[in-house]
């Protein structure tokens, strides 16, 4: 199972790198059903002028279009960074069964780091969460992006 998680996380990392090339914060996400990627997304709030255009939201939208249903039952979402509150809510509303993320987000993470919306007992749906898959690699993509951004700001 670990190997499968790493394969899908690497697909999400490819999308994160594509976001970085466009000047977006490098986060990528894929939705998987029955071992097949059915949805892809990379951060695009700047290029789309859309504050909700996070990688997770775009991947969920793509997957829902693919299967023709907004309920993504029995699907797994792989994302390079722990989802924020907005994305965690969308993941739950989509009825994603499993969330696998790479790096924790100590500033806005809503799946255990700052908040833990996924374990809120009052909510109807509970997505199983597994964080830290390829943690170092996913964190490195983010670190490199922000390091370059700081260097460019100085020049």
UniProtKB/TrEMBL annotation:
GO BP of this protein: tRNA wobble adenosine to inosine editing
UniProt cofactor(s): Zn(2+)
An annotated Gene Ontology molecular function: tRNA-specific adenosine-34 deaminase activity
Enzyme class: hydrolase
Keyword annotations: Hydrolase, Metal-binding, tRNA processing, Zinc
Catalytic activity: adenosine(34) in tRNA + H2O + H(+) = inosine(34) in tRNA + NH4(+)
Residues binding Zn(2+), per UniProt: 54, 84, 87
CC cofactor note: Binds 1 zinc ion per subunit.
Pfam family, one: MafB19-deam
The EC number(s) this enzyme carries: 3.5.4.33
Key word Zinc present: yes
PROSITE patterns linked to this entry: CYT_DCMP_DEAMINASES_1, CYT_DCMP_DEAMINASES_2
Record-linked InterPro entries: APOBEC/CMP_deaminase_Zn-bd, CMP_dCMP_dom, Cytidine_deaminase-like, MafB19-deam, tRNA_aden_deaminase
Active site: 56
Boundaries of every CMP/dCMP-type deaminase domain copy: 3-114
UniProt keyword Phosphoprotein present: no
Subunit structure: Homodimer.
General function of this protein: Catalyzes the deamination of adenosine to inosine at the wobble position 34 of tRNA(Arg2).
Stated family: Belongs to the cytidine and deoxycytidylate deaminase family. ADAT2 subfamily.
Listed NCBIfam families: PRK10860.1 (NF008113)
PANTHER family with a match to the protein in the record: CYTOSINE DEAMINASE FAMILY MEMBER, TRNA-SPECIFIC ADENOSINE DEAMINASE
Designated name of the protein: tRNA-specific adenosine deaminase
């Amino acid at each position: 199972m670990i190997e499968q998680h790493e394969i899908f996380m690497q697909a999400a990392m490819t999308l994160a790198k594509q976001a970085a090339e466009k000047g977006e914060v490098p986060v990528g996400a894929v939705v998987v059903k029955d071992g097949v990627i059915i949805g892809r997304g990379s951060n695009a709030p700047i290029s789309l002028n859309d504050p909700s255009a996070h990688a997770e939201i775009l991947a969920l939208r793509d997957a829902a279009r693919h299967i023709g249903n907004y309920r993504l039952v029995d699907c797994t979402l792989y994302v390079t960074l722990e989802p924020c509150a907005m994305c965690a809510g969308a993941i739950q509303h989509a009825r994603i069964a499993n969330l696998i993320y790479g790096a924790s987000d100590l500033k806005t993470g809503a799946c255990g780091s700052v908040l833990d919306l996924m374990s809120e007992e009052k909510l109807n749906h509970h997505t199983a969460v597994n964080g830290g898959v390829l943690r170092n690699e996913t964190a490195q993509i983010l670190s490199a992006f922000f390091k370059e951004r700081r260097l460019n700001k100085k020049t």
